[in-house]
């Protein structure tokens, strides 16, 4: 798998990838009450984040040149997006993307503290990465999530 920095031309691909996993994120199957979330994952909204110095995005491409996942970090500390195409779940892509973004953040001044708002579906994966819940399940804008933090031990 190749992990490369995302560029402005990837906005459509990133939007499509997130749309492929919305059923894992929204409270209601029909997406009601999640309009703000849907507005945040349009190609235009993705393009805006791709141009923002606050965000860094990477795309994972498999041996067949298919996009299998993406990851982003906000402010070098908050895991903003980590999505893997549902056809590629349980194949280690999420772990590889997390390792990549974590290494980037640490190399760029992160002291070893990360946060994420985990979907209920991804909570087990984040616990495997070492994240711990900092609050009970939250519901906002049609989404359910669990705020989590990871503090790496100082070496």
From TrEMBL:
Span of domain N-acetyltransferase: 1-153
InterPro entries associated with the record: Acyl_CoA_acyltransferase, GNAT_dom, N-acetyltrans/Recomb-assoc
Signal peptide location: none
Gene3D superfamilies: 3.40.630.30
One Pfam family per UniProt: Acetyltransf_10
PANTHER family, A to Z: ACETYLTRANSFERASE (PTHR43451:SF1), ACETYLTRANSFERASE (GNAT) FAMILY PROTEIN (PTHR43451)
Stated name of the protein: GNAT family N-acetyltransferase
